[in-house]
Write a structure and sequence with these properties.
This protein is of the alpha+beta class and 118 residues long. The protein has one helix and four strands. Helices cover 43% and strands 35% of the residues. The termini are far apart.
Length: 118
């Protein structure tokens, strides 16, 4: 009597399990790459907003006043909020400026600089 050739049910199930695990690992890697690309795009747009506001203050003929200011910023069709915090330093000729960029109330980026009188 000839015996039929082929795979047993257990062998097929083991092979399907291995393929499923490999596909799941690939899906997780793809999700991580997508999330990283999105985060990188968010940070780049937020950095442009913060740098624009800091440059505006650097080009101003006067020292900025101490206090907090919220300003809107639109980059690539997305709306960000820039929160500028101007604080005094021990030397009255300098001010510390923190620019925090938020999107929908969530922080995306923070830049700090020191601005001096000319």
């Amino acid at each position: 009597m000839k015996r039929a050739r082929g795979f047993t049910l257990v062998e097929v199930l083991v092979a399907l399990g291995i393929v499923a695990i490999a596909l799941l690992a690939g899906l997780q890697a793809t999700n991580a790459l997508t999330a990283n690309a999105t985060r990188q795009s968010d940070v780049l747009l937020a950095q442009m907003c913060a740098e624009n506001e800091l440059s505006r203050l650097r080009l101003s003929p006067q020292m900025p006043g101490v206090g907090d200011t919220d300003l809107p910023c639109e980059q690539a069709g997305r709306q960000f909020d820039v929160r500028l915090s101007v604080r005094p330093t021990p030397n009255p000729s300098f001010r510390r400026i923190d620019a925090q960029v938020l999107e929908a109330g969530l922080p995306v980026l923070r830049l700090s600089t020191v601005l001096g009188r000319w």
